[in-house]
Structures are given as C-alpha cells and as structure tokens.
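Exam review. A common question shows you a sequence with its structure tokens and asks you to describe the fold in words. Practice with the pair below. Do the first one on your own.
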Amino acid sequence: MISSRFSSLRRALVTGLAIVSIAGQAWAQSAPKVKFATTAGDFVVEVYPDKAPKTVENFLQYVRDKHYDGTIFHRVINDFMVQGGGFTPAFVEKKTRPTIAHEGREALSKGLKNVVGTLAMARTNDPQSAAAQFFINVKDNAFLDPTLIPPGDPVPKFEYQGRVYENTPRANLINSPALFGYTVFGKVVSGMDVISKMKSMPTGAGGHFPSDVPKTAIVITSATLVK
C-alpha cells in the first residue's frame, strides 16, 4: 500500500516537472528575438509580450517596417545607457507612428527592472511620449524604474525621495510624471560585448546635440526578427 502510494506520488511529481519544463520551453519560444546588425558589431535582444504587450508589439512593428535600419545610436553615456532608433547619420529624425501608452508599472510588477542589459523605451518628460526610440542600460539604473503606488484612496502613507506623504489622493500619485519611470520590455541575450564597446566609445557634439554623440557613428544596418 505504501509502495503504491509512493509510486503514484512519483508519477505525479514527474508529470508536474514535465509540465513545468514544457511551460518553460513554451515561454522561451514565445519571447521574440530581434537581431541588430551595427557598424560596431551585432547583438540580439529578447522581448516580453507577456509583460509589456503594447510596448513589445509597437517595437516589433517598427522592426517589421525596417524603421531602425539606417538609424544611429545618437546618445551614448558610459556607466548609464546607449540610446538609438530615432535619427539618421545626418541627424534627421525619422517619422514615427503615434506614441504608445506607458506600461512601466505593469512590467515592473512582473519583474522587469532597469538593470544591466535590459531594453527600455526612451521618451521625453511626458511619460506618454514613447514612440520608436529605445535604450539599453549599461549599469543598474534603479532610479529609472517606475514607482509602484500603495493601495488605498487616499493613499494613507507614501514615501518618495526621503519625504513622507499622508492621505494623498491616489490620482495625484498615479498621474505624477515623476513617478512613471521608464518601461522595460526586453533584454540583450547575446552580444553584450558589443554594447560594452559602444558605451566606451569617445563622444562629443553632433548635429543639434551638444554632447554624448559617438565621434564614430554607430549605425544600425539592419534589425530583423530572428526565426
């Protein structure tokens, strides 16, 4: 009787592990990959539609449309990030589709943070202004992460940058531009050595940018979905 019980338990455990393994493989296969061929070398990113669906679809559509082909990494800051996807080598900004809704908090709640190697959407001071440009973190940039808002309305207690706020209307916190952060939606899965090379390149003024432009242009020759 005991032997039969253990046999049943073992079968259940093996079956459970098999399901987990299959689920893990399915998850890995469901994360699209994009290969960037650049004049500094090639790298591949993996994106997560289960964590930031609108952001990922927006990014992949730009890839399908060949928007990134022929653009440059126009902003490179060692110990911070490398940014590209918006300008030609002549510093002409490419036309984009309408901006996308900010998904930073949703992505953060599912584990995506601005750490080394992650891919995030660039934007202006307007949290809802992200379109095509992206950046890759070259260090852990926790200050770029969105701020999760505690439950309640009003929120009984909220701490931010050393200050404590009490009984704050929830809408005030949800809509505060300073608390949105930046939406992470993928990461570099190969070619991080190329990103390290990029971040160390000499920079200066270029086009209408007063600083942080690589003196030797880093051009994206192609961005393609990996089959």
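Now try the second one, then compare your answer with the model answer below.
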Amino acid sequence: MNFEDIVQLDEKYVMRTYRREPVVLVRGEGALVWDIEGRRYIDCVAGIAVNIVGHCHPYVVEAIKKQVEKLIHISNLYYNELQPVLAMELSKRSGMDKFFFCNSGTEAVEASLKLARKKSGKRDIIAARGSFHGRTMGSLSVTSTEKYRKPFEPLIPGVKWVDYNDAEAIRKAIDKDTAAVILEPVQGEGGVNVPSKDYLKEVREICDEKDILLIFDEVQTGFGRIGDWFASLVFDVKPDIMAMAKGMAGGFPMGAIGAVEEVANAFEPGNHASTFGGNPLACAASLATIRAIEDGDLLRKCRENGAYFIERLHEIQSDGIKEVRGLGMLIGVEMKGSCTEIVTKMREKGVLVNCIQERVIRLAPPLVITREQIDEVVEKFASVCP
C-alpha cells in the first residue's frame, strides 16, 4: 500500500482520537525513522518519550525474538520467571520495595490512586495545575487540562487543585480526608515545567508531617529521561508510590507502580489486577532496556548531551522564543505564539517534534541521539523560528 491507501483506510476504520501528521512511518533505527516514501527524519518525539534506547535497539529486538519463541503470555495466576527478576532490578534502581505490573502510564496512575486510598482509608487527592496523568476516569480526574476533562464529567470526586511549584499550597489543601498528593516531578504535557530545587523536598516534608502519601508520576521522567533512572534520584526525594511506563520496555507496552513495603502491603489478592501486566514478553523487553541503558552509558550521555542540546537552543537568535527549559532529554521551547507551523516546517525539513500547551515545542528524543544529530535539529529549528 502507498501513503494515500493507508490514510484512506485509517480515516474509514480508525476512531478519530488523534490528529495525525501526514506521514506514515515504517522503519526506525536509533534516533532516526523513515517514512513509507523513504524520507528520513530525526525523531525528537520518540513515541512521546517512549523509545528511550532508540528505535529497534539490538538488545530489545533480540530479547523479544528469543522470548516470543518461548512464552508470550501467561496469567498472573501463575509465577512468571522474569517478573520477579525485573521487580528486583527495578527495586535496585528506584528505591521502591515492591511492584505491580500493568501496560501503560495511565494504568499505573490508576493503580497508584487505588493503592493510596486502600492504604490510607481516605478518599481525597491533591493534584497540581498543569498536570497530565492520563485519560482513564481516575487518571483523568487528577489531570488538570479542561479540554480533556470537560466531555467526561462528572469525574471522580475529592480532587483538590494547587499551583505547581508551591509547597505551601499543598500544606493548606490537606485536611482529614486527604489520602495523597500526586505530582509529576517535572511536568511533561503541561509544558516541561521544572520545579525549583527544594520544591519536592518541601512537599515530602509536608506529607511526612501530615501523614499523607506522596505519589510521583514518573511515567515520562523515568528510565533515564532526565539524566538518572528516576527523577526521585535527581531531586533526592523518595515517594511512597511511584508510577512508571513509557521508556520502561524500549517501545514495548509496559507500565508499573513501585511502592515502599509498608504501603505496597496494603494491596491484597483481588484489590487490583491486570490480565496482560508483567507478561514474559514485556518483562524480557524491559530487562533488555535496562541492560541497554547501562551498557550504552546512556544516563551520562543523557545528562551531557541534554545540557548540550539546551545550550545550543539558547544560542538561537529568535524573537519568537520566550524560554528554553528542561532537564536531560526532556526539553521544552516555549514560543511567544503558536507552535503548530513550526511542527509542520520541522517535519518538512526532516525533524519530528510535537507541540504541547499550544506554544511549547517538546523535544524528547531517544537517549542515543548523537551531537551531530542534535546540531542538525538545532540548525533546522533556527531556520524555521519566527
């Protein structure tokens, strides 16, 4: 099939829940992808921050090939030889004690909210304005964007909203019914908003003082995206519950929550479940991703190349740029006007980026992106900036 055939089929048979760019991607390697007509792109979307070790990393491909010939799926009614090994490896890198496996970030947030309610015996959740935690009913209830929420109200009650990066607002919002605070350590969809140095530590102290659980949504910041395994390590703040997904399995669908033991033990058989969660194929892909990150020294490269990327973006002389911000390979370029045309122009020049919050270009490439590729992205970005 050609481009037109695929678009026609998609328009006829696929529900319109996405606004698609006019490109059919068929192949990827490292930080590069190619479309059906053979055009090459530097991918700074990376499956929305998913392809952390690049497209089709040899470790991940080989692990999936081997596992798919052996065992793809079994029910969680039985032991899985890879699931506890993965949980152990995650514990070493996250500081969390026990894990529940699922298939996506929004599922991880759902599980986190349920665990918080179960452990605390309370109902209410404090969430931040500018947050994005997912689109299912529970995760949507703690997502602040009005256009996502409005069509599906009434949502789950008991959510209180505070400004991001304002710890005292959280203190004031806590009452006898508060179960937990949920935060993205760095807000992703909200515009790549990086908090002040002490914000998360102050929130941790408040939660300890008030006996409130702290949930970190590390779906986007986890697995090396901002320069360490998790943002909790970057900011030196340990949550009670941590949601993770996106880069977790190198592009294969997977999510999980980790929790400190006292909290994790609140879940009992029947409290929560996931038919496909932690299946052998996903676990094999995740273990291979962890090995790829370590063998490729990608955490260091993320820190150094991310700083280089941000430095190069600061060098652009453009009246249209309001601010460049970010950590590691999660970077936001806020424009003074709409960034929709920039997305189109960059695609035409062979670079994939996306626009969030109408005015922010998000750059979240694979951690394997090279400096030469970064230079190419920056040069093309400079050429299309107003």
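Model answer, second protein: The two ends are 37 Å apart (CA to CA). The chain has three domains: 1-39, 60-295, 298-348. Full marks require stating both points clearly.
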